[in-house]
Amino acid sequence: MFDNYETNNANDKFAKLKAIAAGEVSAQQPIPWQHEVNKPLIGTIKGFSEFHHDRFGPQKTVIVERENGEVVSAFMNAYVSNGMELQNAQPGDLVLIQLMGKAKSQHGNQYNEFQLYIEKPT
Known about the structure:
alpha+beta
């Protein structure tokens, strides 16, 4: 019924949603991604999201499609979130997010150190 949803899309703006509901097309949901030392997240930004965590309050995430096609959702701490904003990160940009390990502030407090790099498409 909805197997040709892209052709029907011109006539029915809900065709793809109907195809997903009918189980004819899969809706790829992002997989949660964990920051780990020496395991960088490299890929293309697909979008951004937010949700409310019962314990930690509002949380921001970035949705990234990795080189292998896997779509993941990664938490953005304040450093990564601010870096994304400062570099005007947009869907379609290439991104590297890497947990470097623990570091100490000037006041002796420990924190997670990250590397963030955004590359704009040419």
